[in-house]
Amino acid sequence: MDEQRSTVTIPVRDAQLPADLMLPAEPVGVVLFAHGSGSSRHSPRNVAVARTLTGRGLATVLVDLLTPAEDEVDTRTAELRFDIGMLASRLAGIVDWLAAERPAGDVPIGLFGASTGAAAALVAAASRAERVGAVVSRGGRPDLAGAALAQVRTPTLLLVGGLDEEVITLNERALTELGDVGELWVVPGATHLFEEPGALDQVAEHAGAWFTTHLARTTAAPRRS
Can you tell me which residues the record assigns to a coiled coil (predicted)? Predict the structure, then answer.
């Protein structure tokens, strides 16, 4: 499938954030990625998942939620990368940008979060329920979403490695908070980073099916005034 790749700078309220866009010829949706602490938009795992989604006709946006200057400072302090509220606010701002600027066209929006990025994605989904049509968490920490978890009304898929026992427990608890909108899928034999042969392929396939199914039921929401 033909695709266009570009790097853009996305303005949010208090920052200019670098992002990589992959656009298939006729996108049916766009998925915004939120990476985990200590990672970046160049995460090989998220890039691999993004390529699979693009092959399904989904545009993808891999973004750094910290500016280069913030990331340099945070390498020493590790404060901002765990500030779920701030990260979620920036994600919500990018969702608004996608809805207003429409780099992928007038298509529904999904969120893909890994590790702590999953918590930020869930908080953002709760605050932008009219714009976010689906969420996928990979090895996520949905517990860090706090009270926002119970406010999520967006179909949410929790993907966890079968050997990642502590995170399985956290996701099972989160599932009770999500209720009918949540679904948990355990990838057998996989650890937290899904480094085992074929494990990440399963993540990408389940994520792709989830997004194409649920975003197909969503129409792009009207712009905010």
Answer: none
CB 29 within 8 A of CB 109: yes
pTM for the full model? 0.91
Q: Which two tokens stand for residue 53?
A: 């989604």
3-state class percentages of the chain: helix first, strand second, coil last, to nearest 5: 45, 25, 30
Domain assignment present for 224: no
Residues 6+ apart with CB under 8 A from 89: 12, 13, 124
User: Does residue 78 have a pLDDT over 70?
Assistant: no
Question: What does the alpha-carbon distance between residue 170 and residue 172 come to, in Å, rounded to a whole number?
Answer: 6
DSSP state, residue 223? P
CB–CB of 19/7 below 8 Å?
Answer: yes
Closest CA to 53 of 35, 30, 72, 20: 30
Q: Render pLDDT for 98-126 as a digit per residue (tens, 0 to 9).
A: 999 999 999 999 999 998 999 999 999 99
Least Cα distance to 126 among 92, 93, 151 occurs for 151
37 located within any domain = yes
In a domain, 7, yes or no: yes
pLDDT at 221 over 50: no
Number of domains, the chain: 1
183 found inside a domain: yes
Q: Where residue 136 sits, what CATH number does that domain have?
A: 3.40.50.1820
